[in-house]
Write a structure and sequence with these properties.
This protein has 400 residues and is of the alpha+beta class. Helices cover 47% and strands 11% of the residues. The longest helix is centred in the C-terminal third of the chain and has 16 residues. Bound molecules: adenosine-5'-triphosphate and magnesium ion. The site of adenosine-5'-triphosphate has 11 residues, from helix 7.
């Protein structure tokens, strides 16, 4: 059980305590530690107010001061330190009308979503577990802190968070918690797409996605999420973990989808990555020979191709045509890549001007077409990449 990260963070808790306040580790890091999972970011909860935290530490960043969160920079690491907080009435099924700072740990953990996420731990690794989170961890159960209907009515994102923890941790959802999810799923329509996507990304790449995805379908969740709302999501079978981008690409390759990717409010870079993945999938049935594969490896990012091929079982289950595994598999992809004579058009021994001069012709759309033909010939080893060889090849193969 690795506690290296907690050991590194301990002095922060100690310094807060020396000023007479309480401070604990809390949330995902404590849960993952107790589960012997790898810990990533450490969250700290404290009775000290944000102003008090700022006065205790020399290097702080007020990332969310009004909500109680200050980042403490300590030994070049960033730690989120949040003041014990209680929440007022919720509005719109997604946010409290107000938050106020409290001096009592119990009140703070009471507002947290699931029992497994509501365990606090001190510098001696002693846990403060008011809602039997440790027992739920041992039984692999996801259960809300308090009444599930009330907790989901406050913030409907918790429904999706519950399903994503189910996927990531391979836990099952306690009956009442699940029933409330079924009854209240519609409330996710009040959430921002950005918050939804954060959870869907984690859900779709979780080890137990088969179950969680099935639950999303069973709950008809996609009906209430922009972009997916009009699609017949039931037709898409997902039963292995994958990156979010791959999921959306498979969805688009399978279904006739008019919705623009921008509705997901993901970055342009991510949108274009998804489009590349869709092109690769659409291209697969046309890869019928070694040179077809060579061209694919040249035209697209090799890692994207490898990723798509890894998900051949999902493509097949969804009746998306793929290529023969004899022609395209992890090994042939890597071999083809290593044998590429050039990696991009700029490496060709000729350019458009050379062609115009050699053929004594004015520029025009033909230049691009001929360049592409030359590129294919060089990449597939029909001609070697030297000026003279290419021009000889052009003279005998290209008619303008
Ligand atoms: P991860 O390992 O993915 O970071 P996490 O449990 O740390 O999982 P975060 O989203 O980082 O999840 O949130 C940190 C903690 O804040 C949670 O463990 C939980 O105690 C609390 N929390 C987060 N979101 C909510 C929410 N919507 N409602 C109630 N509590 C929440
Ligand atoms: Mg976290």
């Amino acid at each position: 059980m690795s506690n290296e990260l907690f050991e590194k963070a301990k002095p922060i808790l100690t310094q807060i305590q020396q000023q007479g306040f309480q401070a604990y580790f809390v949330g995902g890091s404590v849960r993952d530690y107790l589960m012997h999972r790898e810990i990533h970011d450490i969250d700290i909860t404290t009775s000290a107010t944000p102003d008090e935290i700022e006065s205790i530490f020399s290097h702080t960043i007020p990332v969310g001061k009004e909500h109680g969160t200050i980042n403490v920079v300590f030994n070049h690491e960033n730690y989120e330190v949040t003041t014990f907080r209680a929440e007022e009435e919720y509005i719109d099924h997604r946010r409290p009308s107000d938050v106020h700072f409290v001096r009592d740990l119990y009140e703070d953990v009471q507002r947290r979503d699931f029992t497994i996420n509501a365990i606090a731990m001190d510098t001696e690794y002693k846990t403060f577990d008011y809602f039997n989170g440790e027992s739920d961890i041992h039984q692999a159960i996801i259960r809300t802190v308090g009444n599930p209907s009330e907790r989901f009515a406050e913030d409907a994102l918790r429904i999706l968070r519950g399903l994503r923890f189910q996927s990531q941790l391979n836990f099952s959802i306690e009956d009442n918690t699940f029933q409330a999810m079924v009854n209240q799923i519609e409330d996710i329509k009040y959430l921002s797409i950005e918050r939804i996507i954060v959870e869907l990304k984690k859900l779709i790449s979780g080890q137990n996605v088969a179950t969680s995805y099935h639950h999303l379908i069973q709950l008809d969740a996609f009906k209430y999420i922009p972009y997916f709302e009009k699609l017949d999501m039931q037709r898409l079978i997902i039963d292995e973990p994958m990156q979010f981008d791959v999921w959306i690409a498979i969805l688009n390759a399978k279904m006739n989808n008019e919705e623009p990717l921008s509705k997901l409010k993901i970055s342009n870079k991510e949108q274009s990555h998804i489009k590349h993945l869709v092109s690769i999938i659409n291209q697969l049935p046309e890869v019928n020979s070694k040179s077809d594969l060579t061209m694919m490896v040249y035209d697209y990012d090799i890692n994207d191709i490898l990723t798509i091929i890894e998900h051949t079982p999902t493509l097949s289950k969804n009746h998306i045509k793929t290529a023969s595994p004899l022609i395209i598999n992890q090994q042939t992809i890597k071999d083809s890549y290593q044998q590429l004579p050039i990696n991009q058009r700029q490496q060709l021994a000729i350019n458009g001007n050379d062609l115009m001069q050699h053929l004594n012709q004015q520029g025009g759309p033909w230049v691009k077409d001929v360049l592409r033909k030359v590129e294919i010939a060089v990449v597939t080893n029909k001609v070697s990449n030297t000026y003279n060889e290419i021009m000889k090849w052009v003279d005998s193969h290209v008619k303008i």
